[in-house]
Amino acid sequence: MIDIVSLYIELASLSKIEQEKRLLPLKRAYPAAAIELEKMLLVDDIPLSSSQLLSQQISNQNPMDQNTFIGQQVMGFTITQLVSESGGMGLVFQGEQRLVSHDCESEKVHKAAVKILRTNKLNSGQQKAIFFNEASILIALDHPNVCSIYGVSEVQGHACIVMDYIDGLGLDSWIANNNVSQNERLNVFDQLMRAVSYLHHEQFFHGDIKPQNIIINEQGHLVLIDLGLASKYQASASEKSHDTIQAFTRYWSAPEQVLGQKCTAQSDVFSLGVILHYLLTDKVATKMDVDKLNNTELNAIIKKALSIRPEHRYSNAEALRKSIRYYQQGLPVQEFSQSGPYLFQKLLKRKPFTSLTCVLLVYSVATSLWIIFN
Predict the structure, then answer these.
(1) The total number of structural domains that make up the chain
(2) What span, in angstroms and rounded, lies between the C-alpha atoms of 348 and 121?
(3) In this model, does residue 33 exceed pLDDT 70?
(4) Beta-bridge mates of residue 84
(5) Cα torsion at 145, 146, 148, 151 (round to 10°)?
(6) C-alpha span between 343 and 118 (Å, rounded)
């Protein structure tokens, strides 16, 4: 049997000309697999510039007129302005609700985010499937690092979700606009892992973890947004709805997800590995880039998270978080090494006095035994 996952990873790193050369013998030997690979490679032939990688969304559609929605009312909120045109399957607007005090002397403005679907991309059945999926998931979830939802409605004939307005920057903008240390980046990554760990504990996987869906406010608090692709990860591939739309972003997604195969919590682990590499290098991970990391322990952790085979990755986000915590606490990282010298070196760094005492004790005993028997 041909290993289409491994072939895709190999081909994705090649130039267009090299891809065509590599595909020629495959077309003769495995025509069906070659056609499938060509389809996947056509998802994106654009060079991997950072601006393109950080602003990808589902391609080529007729733009919606944002002015159609400005001033409209939805669930007590007035839509005031467009916030983002890269909100997964739709546009994201800011909504405001003005609350006046009983004495009419003060007024409080309550903000919400209103996500409106690009209706030219899906039929009405698909709209309902995607939006009610996202709504039902978010309503049931309760975590400080996961975006809260107020409800589902309709505006100007478009399905929409009204959710908490997160005032902050996307992960890419946060990095670009702040001089953040490696420890600060790892602390933010820990918040992300806590959010994804919570999803996995609730038996969901996110499905589209990327910088645009990771918002950080001025206080450094992280919120994970856009759970439109989140699903119960025990479901088999055969249980997927025909209305499901693969709206993930290729460069942040696991190979099995890009290929339309069954996704699990380990698919999110792959995306977390790409995010961690991005946090440490400001680049999207490729196999060659991972090999260039100076920190050998973090390098080993990222390599495991980015394994082509899901079963070779961490089982879930919490398992990945545990390895990162071990690294931060100076404990041995078993993905890097389990050798005696490495374990002793880690102990020496953590507890130099205890380690030195043990060495002297062993030396003393060995010397005494040598004297006795000689």
Answers:
(1) 4
(2) 59
(3) yes
(4) 92
(5) 180
(6) 54
Tell me 224's DSSP state. E
For 164, the enclosing helix (H) or strand (E) is strand 158-164
| Closest of 11, 12, 3 to residue 284, by C-alpha | 12
Q: How many CB atoms lie within 10 A of CB 329?
A: 9
Tell me: do 235 and 210 sit in the same domain: yes
Contacts of 250 (CB under 8 A, 6+ apart): 43, 44, 56, 258
Q: At what angle do helices 265-281 and 182-201 cross, to 10 degrees?
A: 170
**Those residues with Cβ within 8 angstroms of residue 36's Cβ, 6 or more apart along the chain or in another chain:** 4, 259
Q: Are residues 314 and 350 in the same domain?
A: no
Torsion-angle region of 40 (φ positive above 0: left; ψ -120 to 50: alpha; else: beta)? alpha
pLDDT for the residue numbered 172? 92
What range does the domain containing 350 cover?
340-373
Q: Which two tokens stand for residue 40?
A: 């996947």
Q: Mean per-residue pLDDT for 266-292?
A: 85
Q: What is the pLDDT of residues 69-117, one digit of tens each?
A: 999 999 899 999 998 875 446 788 999 998 877 777 778 899 999 988 7
Query: What per-residue confidence (pLDDT) applies to 267?
Result: 93
pLDDT tens-digit map of 148-176: 888 778 888 787 888 899 889 999 999 99
Residue 69: name the closest of 113, 10, 24 by CA. 113
Tell me the one-letter amino acid at 371: I
Same domain, yes or no, for 176 and 139? no
Mean pLDDT of the chain: 76
Residue 305 and residue 356 in one domain: no
Give the sheet arrangement for strand 158-164, strand by strand. 73-74, 77-87, 90-100, 107-117, 158-164, 149-155
- The per-residue pLDDT for 193 is 97
**In this predicted model, which residue has the larger pLDDT, 232 or 249?**
249
Quote the CA–CA distance of 92 and 83 in Å, as a whole number: 6
- Least confident range from 23-27, 277-281, 328-332: namely 328-332
pLDDT confidence tier of residue 144, bands split at 50, 70 and 90 = very high
pTM: 0.70
158-164/231-232 β-pairing: unpaired
Q: Is residue 184 located within the same domain as residue 296?
A: yes
Instruction: State whether 30 and 109 are in the same domain.
Output: no
